[in-house]
Amino acid sequence: MTSSPPALTRIRVGSAPDSWGVWFPEDPLQTPWERFLDEVADAGYEWIELGPYGYLPTDAARLADETAKRGLRVSAGTVFTGLHHGPAVWEQTWEHVSRIAALTQDTGAEHLVVIPSFWRDDKTGAVLEDRVLTPDQWRELTSQTERLGREVRDRYGLRIVVHPHADTHIDTPANVARFLDATDPALVSLCLDTGHYAYCGGDSVEAIETFGERIGYLHLKQVDPRVLAEVRAEELPFGPAVARGVMCEPPSGVPALEPVLAAAQRLGVELFAIVEQDMYPCPPDRPLPIARRTRAHLRSCGAR
């Protein structure tokens, strides 16, 4: 008889629209938002992210009503940025961020997930810019991210958590380390996504043990090593890679989530760990059974 792992008393697990195949505010291939809320609650989760702005209701009172009646609470909002372009994009960026930050604040959440812009289109694979930043672009990326962290904190009381992501300039362990070394820990924390970090060659347990004090949030996902090998060999963009199934249902992929969650627990701080299984597009009946099984797997890892 195997013993149960220790309870992860500091880890609050949840899920996100992404796990229902949602990447865009509106898309005929996506699960309707009411069904997402019904099913995420049915699967046993209490925490959700807002997903793409406009997918869930943007009226704070209506959103509060819709989540509360299902026993759900919001952990974070998500924004997309291209801050390596410097001050020229600040106004446009802030217009986007401020709307989402205001709604996130109104939900009672405390985090804003910041995703860098892609260097190639995630649907077509068209190369949009060089995949390697110049030293000047790195300086703009780090300084403008610090500015964003300060403004979001001062105006909305939120903490930004920057999400290393495939096909962006903050991707590999080397680039993540460079970004962290050049940013102020008081202003910029990290959202460590276990799937994206593995996709880009990283080890999440090692990351938590190396720069755990910078990790303010977790996304839980796994990659299928076989599909990832194909993706690398064919240099597939992220969108087609997801359509091929590179992000897979736990526990069939890597990294194993139990050691990751145990390492996070050892940090001694409260952390959200939000399941995000990229699978756009997907049939409407596919997400719920996966979500139920994933929630059961997380319980087996100690995430009560």
From TrEMBL:
Its EC number is 4.2.1.44. It is an enzyme of class 4 (lyase). GO terms for molecular function: myo-inosose-2 dehydratase activity. It comes from the Bacteria. The keyword S-adenosyl-L-methionine does not apply. Pfam families: AP_endonuc_2 (PF01261). Keywords: Lyase. PANTHER family: HYDROXYPYRUVATE ISOMERASE, INOSOSE DEHYDRATASE. This is Inosose dehydratase. It comes from Streptomyces lavendulae subsp. lavendulae. The gene is iolE.
